[in-house]
Amino acid sequence: MTIAALPDHNSITDPLWLKLFNGYRHVIAPLRHNGWTTDVELCGGEYHLRADLGDGTELIIAATHSLPVDSAEVDGWTVVRQGIDNPDVHTALYDSTPDGAQSHHGTSLIPMLARIDELDVPKTAQQLIVSATHTSPYGANHNQTAGIEAPGTAVARFFEWSQRLITAEGYRKVWERPEQDGHPLALFERVGHITTVRVTPWHE
Fold first, then answer.
1. How many CB atoms lie within 10 A of CB 22?
2. Longest pairwise C-alpha distance within the chain
3. Which of 107, 124, 174, 199 is most enclosed, with most CB atoms within 10 A?
4. 75-101 pLDDT, tens per residue?
5. Are 52 and 37 within 8 A, CB to CB?
6. How much is the pTM?
């Protein structure tokens, strides 16, 4: 498994930086699984995510304006690719805010990461598969599998499936593999029903 290292600066011990980094983990983790060091920028009360693409450019991810402290308040995503040394050279890649071209996607992560994964930039080559196993109290199993995807899109799908289990189906998360220990894996429970959501490598 390849996941980018954490940023190397003093802010990573700052309580606000940690709150934002953890609050936007569902966006940051897919970018890190693509192999890109991803940071939270704290610019005088204006917050955004910055991913170094390793080719002299970076992604700037925000919402209608800067990112709110509470990620639940995001109304859509904007993604801009710009030069690290020359931010005036930039390209708007994605805008799912209410007035944006991709507004129909709202806050969904998968379309945004799929667009980012199309970029011809250095990134992790390994492809991944997201799957879920649903086990009932009487032992019946049901499996669900997505297609073969680039790391960013797959990890975004892992987070969206996990969130749907909690918000739409009434599950609670009882365990999740630590990020540094391998591909994402989480266990959910609802009155005796167990669901495991996992990301695994695809091998030709």
1. 11
2. 60
3. 199
4. 999 999 999 999 999 999 999 999 999
5. yes
6. 0.94
| Token code pair at residue 72 | 């639940």
DSSP per position, 119-188:
S-S------EEEEEEEE-TTS-EEEEEEEEE-HHHHHHHHHHHHHHHHHTT--EEEEE--GGGSS-EEEE
Locate 48 and state its tokens: 């955004």
Which amino acid, residue 145?
Answer: T
- 108 contacts: CB under 8 Å, gap ≥ 6: 96, 160
Torsion of CA 62, 149, 115, 42, to 10 degrees: 20
Length reported for the chain: 204
Round the CA-based radius of gyration of the chain to a whole number and report it: 17
How far apart CA 133 and CA 11 sit, in angstroms, is 39
196 Cβ contact partners less than 8 Å away, ≥ 6 residues apart: 132, 133, 135, 185, 186, 187, 188
